[in-house]
């Protein structure tokens, strides 16, 4: 979304940090057992320029399925029709068989499991290892004219991430509708399913092959604030071959390396991270660089 916002919509804003990594999945109807079963059906995505849409289309193409964007008519047997849908509308649409699946951030995947209306076919973090999902996007004017305030904002978010990593059960309660501030409309039990999953769930996902790369050691959701340039570069490369609706001509002119330097301002988050002891506090090794791992 930030690529579209800055270069498609010309918003004067920059990514200053990541919020959570992984934390998304492809959820499907109970009678869908493989990606091939999605042929001739409709799957919902949250936004055309989201990493969810990118990962989904990579998965479909790897299975010989063509992502299509049809306003009317049925997709062919080797096509999968994609539609944009608000995350909160996805579980009801799946339950009513309006769609055969959706790919989105939690807790809407866990909700389908808990309501027994769907199942997780693949975790996106098991396709693109530790990919960013939600990020912190701030107006350039604040970054230049209110630098001290901007630093405090990033500090607060990074501190919250570190605390959440250490207190997942308590975080689930605080964020839930039973929490004192009712930050979300979701029950604590549902959020705990995402933030503090049971070992039995891991075994089930391995058996169902929703997780195929257990050796990656990724969590269902994790919190890591540094915006790795390699990720931004790879995301831009893949967006260029991703089907989207609307005016997408701007993508053709984007240079991935230049975008990684222009879209992201990591000055603030580096200070926040170092104040907490460095990236190792968030389970990261190798400094401020990494190599992207993507296996469809």
From TrEMBL:
Keyword check for Transmembrane: no
Keyword Transport: yes
Cellular component annotations (GO), alphabetically ordered: endomembrane system
GO biological process: cellular response to sulfate starvation
Keywords tagged on the record: Cell inner membrane, Cell membrane, Membrane, Transport
Main location class: membrane
Subcellular location: Endomembrane system
Protein name: Sulfonate ABC transporter
